[in-house]
From TrEMBL:
GO terms for molecular function: exonuclease activity. It comes from Nitrospira defluvii. Residues 1-196 form the Calcineurin-like phosphoesterase domain. Gene3D superfamilies: 3.60.21.10. The keyword Transcription does not apply. It comes from the Bacteria. InterPro entries: Calcineurin-like_PHP (IPR004843), DNA_Repair-Maintenance_Comp (IPR050535), Metallo-depent_PP-like (IPR029052), Mre11_N (IPR041796), Pesterase_YhaO (IPR014576). The keyword Ribonucleoprotein does not apply. Signal peptide: none annotated. Keywords: Exonuclease, Hydrolase, Nuclease. This is DNA repair exonuclease family protein YhaO.
Length: 419
């Protein structure tokens, strides 16, 4: 017996702020969730699985129109024509109270009730699937105690959308814990809600497959589903990578580099592990340049120089399609701050002032609120996504302060104050 376990498809999830990126592959990014789901159906057909499990959040929110629902239904029909049954629990994003538009699903598809937990027996396979959907977006109770007991002699699967005891970056819904799941007596728990793949336990096997397609730079790495084979009571599980756009964050160390033409090779070395075995996907990469380099002076004097160099380096990589989502700078100049602070000129005065502010956390936080609070509060959300500094984070504020210092030092150097 074989089945696929997937979750968190978030079909047609809106990707805000893409229009602020010049040259962004907007169409491919916006259709990525659909394309990944089509890959899942293709693989289910090729593997001739017996059924497919979806552990919630098929949709991201209420449909703007019926096209989203009709697309999903079309893929279900493909599975049905091959005799592959489908079982769904609704999660917080696609709960009964969230999706207002309705479509009649094909007969081979079962959506578990949101009023009570149910058991569906597949007598031909000796499999029992237990599940319960979310009635509303926010479910704060542990649903597991309401699940029926295991069916004796059957392979028992629990289908559940849950945060377990909590996961970073995810709201707490249907909270439960591993002992509660284990004590239920099922053989496999097909979980959803957490977007990073995580194997919680082997016996019984408890798994978050992660989401099917990463949607932004924080959802990095391979995304896909679980292909599970059950033979003679044993479970073999294989992760299937199905994402069509793979998000990555790459740090490129520039310590000791002084020439702009050296950046391409440094970027390539940092990117090699990302490209290894990643196939024909589009790679969406967030690049962070780190280290101590004289190139920081060049960037301060001519802002955008290093980002442009990264874009050019990406163009030179011919064996993979790369889109650089963002270039972040965490650079320092190889400046002897101690000696610079002793100087009796504009450079020394600047370094002493920056050291004074950076060394007084209260002053740093107050300065940020006074100088940046109103400005950042007026930035439109679609422009600000992922870029707005936290005004209560001293580490981030010190980084901004050092960037400002580098810019001013570059101007002072150009004007002759450094001579």
């Amino acid at each position: 017996m074989r089945f696929i376990h997937a979750a968190d498809l978030h079909i047609d999830s809106p990707l805000r702020g893409l229009d602020r990126y010049d040259g962004a592959p907007v169409a491919r990014l916006r259709t990525a969730t659909r394309s990944a789901f089509e890959r899942l159906v293709d693989r289910a057909l090729a593997e001739r699985v017996d059924f497919v499990l979806f552990a919630g959040d098929i949709y991201d929110c209420d449909w703007q129109d019926f096209h989203t629902g009709l697309f999903f239904r079309e893929q279900l029909v493909r599975l049905g024509r091959a005799g592959i049954r489908v079982f769904i629990v609704q999660g917080n994003h696609d709960a009964q109270g969230v999706i207002s538009k309705q479509l009649v699903l094909p007969q081979h598809v079962t959506v578990f009730s949101s009023r009570t937990a149910q058991t569906i027996r597949l007598d031909d396979l000796s499999v029992a699937i237990h599940g319960r959907s979310f009635p509303e977006r926010a479910v704060d109770e542990d649903l597991v105690p309401s699940y029926p007991p295991p069916v004796p002699g059957f392979f028992n699967i629990g289908l559940l959308h849950t945060s377990l005891t909590g996961r970073a970056g995810h709201d707490t819904y249907a909270p439960t814990d591993s002992p509660t799941l284990i004590n239920k007596g099922y053989d496999y728990w097909a979980l959803g809600h957490v977007h990073a793949r995580e194997v919680i336990a082997e016996r019984p096997r408890i798994v978050f497959p992660g989401n099917l397609q990463g949607r932004h730079a924080k959802e990095t790495g391979a995304k896909g589903c679980e292909l599970v084979t059950v033979e003679a009571g044993g479970i073999e599980s294989e992760f299937l990578a199905l994402d069509v756009v793979r998000w990555s964050q790459v740090a490129v160390p520039l310590d000791g580099l002084h020439r702009l033409d050296a950046l391409g090779e440094a970027f390539r070395r940092a990117l090699d592990p990302v490209l290894a075995g990643a196939g024909d996907r589009l790679h969406a990469v967030r690049v962070t340049l780190t280290g101590s380099t004289e190139l920081h002076r060049l960037e301060a004097a001519q802002p955008g120089t290093l980002a442009a160099a990264m874009y050019g380096a990406a163009q030179d990589i011919g064996e993979a399609e790369i889109w650089i989502e963002q270039v972040r700078l965490e650079l320092t100049t190889p400046l002897d701050r101690g000696r610079a602070a002793e100087r009796q000129d504009a450079v020394g005065e600047l370094v002493r002032l920056v050291d004074s502010i950076a060394g007084d956390e209260a002053e740093l936080l107050q300065l940020a609120q006074d100088e940046l609070g109103d400005l950042l509060g007026s930035v439109p959300q679609e422009v600000a996504v992922g870029d707005v500094p936290r005004l209560d984070d001293p580490v981030e504020l010190r980084s901004l302060l050092m960037d400002a210092e580098a810019t001013v030092l570059a101007r002072l150097t150009d004007s002759g104050a450094d001579r």
